[in-house]
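Retry 2 of 3 after timeout on previous attempt. Resubmitting structure tokens to design endpoint.
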């Protein structure tokens, strides 16, 4: 209150408003001693009726008499121990010893069972093996197990059967696609910028592939974080400096690290901001800080943009110091091929020139035809209207624009194919043929197929962060209420003061090789004893398996977030995560081998429900619903036509006319020429910010303008309307039916057995089989609708007759609409 700073000796000597606090060698003239001993007007501690204990006063007095020396080994910037749990460094707790030790398979169970015993809760029994195998496949791969995979597990009676299954699934390339998709939610991944323009990010998919590969490789999480924050600064390299096709593995590793920084290049962006580069830069820095705070720190850092955080010890200055960390970086293209490879592009550049000339020739002829037609049309209009029409639009007056409007409308509606005379048609066809040949001549790869070009001859590149020259780095300011127009004080790069300890400075030093501030941030974030990084990630992994985290507000470990239900377990997992080399797969294995994970989800105990209805303390397993992508994948897996091709630019499966109508510009949705491409996994489908793929939109696709820690789960009518009526659902049901006929011939009883095993990983009950047979019989007697000649029945279905094929297709469609198909127990 008086401006007294007691952190350093100089502050004590200077004192506050009342003058010097300490007079070395003279306690009687030292305000701090007089106030503590209640010998003057000021009596400290404030509000106390008695002075400090005599022993403490004597210590203080003796220290002043001896010259008020400041020990050289005392941390000059010592900070008080944080009071909030998540800001304290994790301390590995002792594993508890619950009474029911028979329920403990590993330390996770010990913590959970101890908590259940404390709360008076009864744990559920272990789920049956059919439930467990289906649970494991969906959790780790996002796909249903095949009947063969189920049989293999059920027949394996060895003690290690479950552990072997977990290891097998973790080794599958499908694992990275499943858990990579979860991470993409966390980092607000999208292939376009959003807002009205929703401009395309051509290289964003390289980050998606980077994430999938990182999960499949079990890249240590600390390295994963470092690459995304500062891969280019920690491992600088450039493939363009290599003149050969065989690139050293180390360089490929460094390239991969740099691609990690693509994270900060596909944020939401207003296209019009490009007209104000200062505003655009501010928006990008804001997105960088918000994403870093949410994804890696699990904090609502964005609340400090306009003012000091109202609940957490994060100041507005902290916010802009983090902006300054990113201020020296900008998005730039990084070729992902060698210099020798790009030279082949130059060798073939003449093909691009030929294509351009073919286009010009075509346009000139088209213009000639349209001019001929318009001359004839102009005869029906006044001379003033014709003159207005022939005046370039930019030079027209308002009156001329109105006069020219009818002719403009006619001109825009002209279709050249309909205007050609018999004499003109051969020339037109020749130009079109030449244009097509020129387009086909542009190579996709060089003769040795060493280089794959992007689009029409673009050098394959990634969009990453690159450092600006120091002299070009703009200053960063704290802005009043976050308003770019009201800068207050300039700030330098640094860390949030509440999260650093005595061994770290919140200020970033200038390093000899350049500032590399993102490198310093990355290394600080991945310190083994960082209070948040490991906690936040193991909590995300836990949420992926149980449907909610130990901290249910996965992106808010602050005062407004929910407290951990099992605080000691969270700290034990965080320390174990670091101890096991930050291995994400090790965490999966640890969790899935616990008896807690293997509990039954259908266990009902009225006493437990009365104590803990939300199941916060895990007395049974949570039932979870599949996300839209997993539903898409499961439908295609069951139909037997899923395409497991990995990587590459995003695909756009065909949409119906009503679905296309939701697009501002329908032509922007470009379906693949190869029909098999449309059957790829959902993670590879284009993610636009202002248009969600219809199935994903129905099933709670997150708003990817910001980090999404956990998807909402709603139940609304449009969900079943899609799976009942959409063209994809019907087509895949038909292919599912064809798969059954191929496997079992014309045998309805065998169809039903196979259908249940394929779709639900179990045999049908007697009642289900009876009802399914009755349904088939009833539908088989109903005349089927006429089919389009361009959409014939699959060959297998044609062998059983149209009405029976339609009946079986509808039974398959029914299975795809069961709750059991989209829920995991």
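Retry 2 succeeded. Sequence:
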């Amino acid at each position: 209150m008086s401006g007294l700073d007691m952190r350093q000796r100089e502050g004590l000597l200077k004192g506050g408003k009342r003058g010097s606090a300490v007079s070395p060698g003279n306690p009687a003239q030292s305000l701090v001693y007089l106030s503590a001993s209640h010998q003057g007007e000021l009596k400290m501690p404030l509000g106390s009726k008695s002075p400090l204990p005599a022993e403490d006063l004597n210590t203080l007095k003796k220290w002043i008499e001896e010259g008020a020396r400041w020990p050289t080994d005392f941390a000059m910037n010592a900070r008080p121990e944080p009071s909030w749990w998540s800001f304290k460094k994790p301390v590995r707790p002792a594993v508890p010893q619950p009474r029911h030790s028979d329920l403990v398979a590993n330390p996770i169970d010990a913590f959970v069972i101890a908590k259940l015993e404390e709360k008076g809760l009864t744990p559920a029994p272990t789920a049956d093996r059919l439930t467990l195998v289906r649970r494991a496949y969906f959790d780790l791969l996002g796909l249903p197990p095949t009947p063969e995979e189920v049989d293999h597990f059920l027949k394996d009676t060895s003690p290690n059967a479950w552990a072997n299954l977990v290891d097998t699934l973790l080794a599958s390339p499908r694992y990275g696609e499943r858990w990579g998709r979860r991470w993409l939610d966390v980092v607000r991944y999208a292939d376009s910028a959003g807002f009205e323009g929703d401009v395309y990010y051509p290289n964003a998919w390289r980050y998606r592939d980077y994430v999938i590969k990182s999960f499949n490789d079990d890249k240590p999480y600390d390295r994963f974080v470092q690459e995304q924050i500062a891969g280019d600064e920690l491992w600088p390299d450039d493939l363009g400096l290599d003149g050969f096709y065989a690139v050293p593995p180390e360089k490929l590793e460094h390239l991969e690290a740099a691609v990690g920084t693509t994270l900060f290049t596909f944020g939401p962006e207003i296209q019009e901001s490009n007209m104000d580069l200062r505003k655009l830069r501010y928006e990008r820095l804001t997105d960088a800080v918000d994403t870093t705070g949410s994804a890696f720190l699990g904090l609502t850092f964005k609340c400090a943009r306009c003012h000091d955080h109202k609940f957490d010890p994060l100041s507005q200055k902290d916010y802009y110091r983090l902006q300054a960390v990113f201020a020296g970086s900008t998005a730039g293209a990084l070729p992902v091929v060698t210099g020798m490879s790009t030279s082949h592009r130059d060798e073939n550049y003449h093909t691009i020139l030929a294509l351009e000339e073919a286009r010009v020739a075509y346009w000139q002829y088209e213009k000639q035809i349209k001019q001929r037609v318009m001359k004839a049309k102009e005869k029906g209009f006044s001379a003033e209207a014709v003159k207005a029409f022939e005046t370039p639009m930019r030079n027209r007056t308002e009156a001329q624009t109105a006069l020219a409007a009818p002719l403009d409308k006619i001109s825009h509606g002209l279709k050249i194919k309909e205007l050609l005379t018999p004499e003109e048609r051969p020339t037109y066809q020749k130009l079109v043929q030449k244009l097509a040949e020129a387009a086909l001549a542009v190579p996709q790869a060089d003769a040795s197929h060493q280089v794959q070009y992007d689009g029409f001859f673009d050098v394959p590149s990634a969009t990453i962060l690159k450092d600006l020259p120091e002299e070009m780095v703009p200053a960063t300011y704290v802005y009043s209420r976050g308003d770019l127009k009201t800068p207050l004080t300039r700030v330098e790069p640094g860390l949030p003061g509440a999260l650093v300890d005595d061994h770290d400075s919140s200020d970033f030093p200038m390093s000899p090789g350049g500032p590399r501030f993102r490198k310093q941030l990355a290394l600080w974030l991945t310190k083994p004893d960082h209070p948040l990084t490991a906690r936040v990630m193991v909590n995300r992994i836990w949420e992926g398996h149980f449907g909610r985290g130990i901290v249910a507000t996965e992106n808010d470990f602050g005062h407004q977030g929910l407290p951990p239900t099992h605080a000691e377990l969270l700290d034990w997992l965080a320390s174990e995560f670091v101890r096991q080399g930050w291995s994400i797969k090790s965490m999966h294995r640890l969790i899935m081998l616990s008896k807690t994970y293997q509990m039954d989800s259908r266990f009902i105990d009225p006493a437990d429900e009365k104590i803990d209805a939300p199941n916060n303390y895990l007395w049974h397993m949570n039932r979870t619903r599949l996300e839209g992508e997993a539903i898409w994948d499961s439908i295609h897996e069951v139909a037997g036509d899923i395409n497991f091709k990995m990587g590459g630019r995003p695909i756009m499966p065909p949409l119906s006319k009503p679905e296309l109508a939701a697009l501002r510009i329908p032509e922007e949705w470009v379906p693949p020429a190869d029909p098999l491409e449309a059957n790829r996994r959902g993670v590879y489908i284009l993610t636009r910010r202002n248009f969600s793929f219809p199935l994903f939109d129905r099933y709670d696709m997150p708003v990817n303008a910001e980090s999404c820690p956990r998807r909402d789960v709603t139940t609304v009518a449009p969900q079943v309307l899609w799976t009942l009526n959409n063209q994809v659902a019907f087509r895949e049901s038909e292919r599912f039916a064809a798969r059954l006929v191929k496997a079992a011939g014309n045998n309805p009883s065998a169809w039903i057995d196979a259908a249940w095993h394929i779709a639900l990983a179990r045999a049908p009950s007697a009642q289900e089989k009876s009802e399914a047979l009755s349904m088939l019989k009833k539908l088989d007697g109903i005349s089927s609708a006429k089919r389009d000649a361009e959409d014939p029945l699959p060959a297998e279905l044609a062998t059983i007759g149209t009405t029976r094929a339609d009946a079986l297709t509808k039974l398959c469609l029914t299975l795809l609409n069961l709750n059991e198909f989209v829920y995991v127990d």
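Attempt log closed. The chain has a mean pLDDT of 91.
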